[in-house]
Amino acid sequence: MLVEGIRDIHDRGYVHCDLRPENILVYSDMYGSIRSLKIADFGPTIGPGEKDTTELEPWMLDFPGTAVYMPPESVTDEKIRAALYIWSLVCIFREKITGKLPWE
């Protein structure tokens, strides 16, 4: 469900710049089974026509998302690319499996 949601966001021309566990809302039924996921907090999102090569705007220079879930090149190159989803997903899955942040 999460990958489908990210794909939908990307297909619409957006890049969600702050994908992290706190921005993934889980809805379950009365038996505890997951019914759906929602991706929240589109504040630092990059819009259509800006994806893959967008340079950070001055207001975003203090990280457009949560640094621990961002690939290093997003910070060092000051570029936002749709490929950051892969990095963010791996960080989220690692945290859910180990219970620890991907890095300090």
Automatic annotation (TrEMBL):
Domain (Protein kinase) ranges: 1-104
Single Gene Ontology BP annotation: signal transduction
Listed name of the protein: Stress-activated protein kinase JNK-like
Organism: Durio zibethinus (Durian)
InterPro entries assigned: Kinase-like_dom_sf, Plant_MAPKKK, Prot_kinase_dom, Tyr_kinase_AS
Lineage of producing organism: Eukaryota, Viridiplantae, Streptophyta, Embryophyta, Tracheophyta
GO MF terms held by the record: ATP binding; protein kinase activity
